[in-house]
Amino acid sequence: MIKGMTGYGSQDFSSGKVKGSVEIKSLNHRYLDLSYYLPPGFTWVENKIRDLLAQKIERGRVTIAVKITHKPSGVAGFNQEAAKAYLKYAKIFKKELGVKGELSLSDLIQLPGVVDSSKEAVLDTDSIWPAIGKSLTGALNGLLEMRRREGKSLAADINVQLKRMLLKIKQIQARAKVVLAEKKKTLNHEEFASFQKSSDVNEELTRMAHHIEELRLLLKSDAAMGKKIDFIAQEMQRETNTIGSKLQDKVVSHAVIAVKSKIEKIREQSQNIE
Fold first, then answer.
1. Same domain, yes or no: 69 and 82
2. What is the tens place of the pLDDT at every residue in 209-249?
3. Pairing, β 60-70 against β 32-37
4. What is the structure's pLDDT at 126?
5. Distance (Å, rounded) from C-alpha 216 to C-alpha 155?
6. 121 phi, psi to nearest 5 deg
7. Is 63 a member of any domain?
8. Phi, psi dihedral angles at 20 (to 5 degrees)
9. Whole-angstrom Cα distance, residue 236 to residue 230?
10. Exposed, middle or buried, 102 (CB in 10 Å: 0-12/13-18/19+)?
11. Percent of the chain, pLDDT > 90?
12. In the 8-state DSSP scheme, what is residue 169?
């Protein structure tokens, strides 16, 4: 069954004290276009993610976001030069300004620049990746399931259009016989032969019936078929235009307009199909 290109999947992961989540979103696109939102230090996994997704997805604009929601506390940094400078000036103030008292350790570490507690803990990306990779697979499965459900709906809609189109094709076939019979009564032999040749749409109608059957088969495929469906719809549009120009008849013209409307709907839906 064909697949759509709209989907979403997410899954949490945990590796030691590190916790986070993986989210994957996909939208319509002519090709496979990947965008990454990764924590610092994880750019090296982009190729791994691409390889995994390319095995399952052929078309779509896909966004992959890896978020770290919890990690070990930051490590405090000690600025030895700043501490020495404070102690130096404390001695100068005491000697030259007559300031009394001592600069204790507890006082020293409170001074700006001596201790930096904002330093983030460095994550071991190699050890965390297996957990992320597992969650990535889970999120991808969720996204693929949503794309399959969309594909099922798209296939059902296109099949309805094809069924209605086939009825119009049969109407044109029947009307062509009526038009031919009416012309035979009013034209002489030479005129009728010329009209019969110029208005013969049997070849176009046969190809239309073939295209309809071909589309029905494509809708059952698991491979990416959006571009093929659009191509066949274009061919159907060309055949329909030829029918309309060859067979000048009010009933046929109305049927041709109806067929072209259904072809356009199929082409619009093909843009949503992988």
1. no
2. 999 999 999 999 988 999 999 999 999 999 999 999 999 89
3. parallel
4. 87
5. 9
6. -70, 140
7. yes
8. -175, -165
9. 10
10. exposed
11. 71
12. H
